[in-house]
Design a protein that fits this description.
This protein is of the alpha+beta class. Helices cover 46% and strands 18% of the residues. The protein has a 3-stranded antiparallel β-sheet. Strand 2 and strand 3 form a beta hairpin. Helix 2 crosses helix 3. The chain is globular.
Length: 65
């Protein structure tokens, strides 16, 4: 993912999108989310996991102005 793509993301993204941004596979990303060990803040909405985009950007060293 490019920096422009990361800056254009909504407030939360799917685990798959976050995993792609940080270079994790889908299965491993979901394992980490279930274990509470994903490297960014993950919230659970019903049966779905959502990654907080500001934490994802911070992890990648991308600050918004």
């Amino acid at each position: 993912m490019s920096q422009d793509e990361l800056l254009a993301l909504p407030t939360t993204v799917s685990v798959e999108t976050a995993a792609r941004a940080i270079g994790l596979g889908r299965t491993r990303a979901y394992e980490l989310a279930r274990q509470g060990a994903f490297p960014c803040k993950v919230i659970r909405v019903g049966a779905k996991y959502r990654v907080v985009t500001v934490d994802l950007r911070r992890l990648l060293g991308i600050e918004t102005s």
